[in-house]
Structure to design on (133 residues):
């Protein structure tokens, strides 16, 4: 069954578009683009990351916006998945470091980690593990 009806039975949801299975060969850079992160420059971070990933030819990496991670006070937030690394307080200049060190070399940028509660990190990682984003 690939579709389900909404509560009133008026419309349907296509499960294939609502829940996506993340390919193990693919890496995602999720950038929170909700209000708090957006006010702090998330759009510029998103654009810079996307530009760098495309220009540097990072194979198997896709930059995507994410509605909200819930770590608003620590934003802008960027999550690298399936690496399960959460960067908080990211600035536009950090986008280059994320590409050069994390995406290319696999190095975690420690000063940008540990800014949100572990239980929130785990919740978001579980959602991503289940394909919900």
């Amino acid at each position: 069954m690939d579709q389900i009806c909404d509560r009133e039975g008026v419309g349907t949801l296509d499960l294939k578009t609502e829940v996506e299975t993340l390919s193990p060969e693919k890496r995602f850079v999720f950038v929170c683009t909700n209000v708090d992160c957006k006010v702090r420059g998330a759009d510029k971070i998103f654009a810079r990351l996307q530009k760098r990933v495309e220009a540097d030819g990072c194979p198997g990496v896709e930059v995507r916006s994410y509605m909200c991670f819930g770590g608003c006070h620590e934003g802008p937030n960027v999550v690298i998945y399936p690496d399960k690394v959460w960067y908080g307080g990211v600035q536009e200049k950090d986008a280059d470091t994320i590409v050069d060190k994390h995406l290319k070399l696999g190095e975690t940028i420690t000063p940008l980690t540990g800014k949100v509660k572990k239980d929130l990190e785990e919740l978001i990682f579980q959602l991503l593990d289940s394909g919900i984003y």
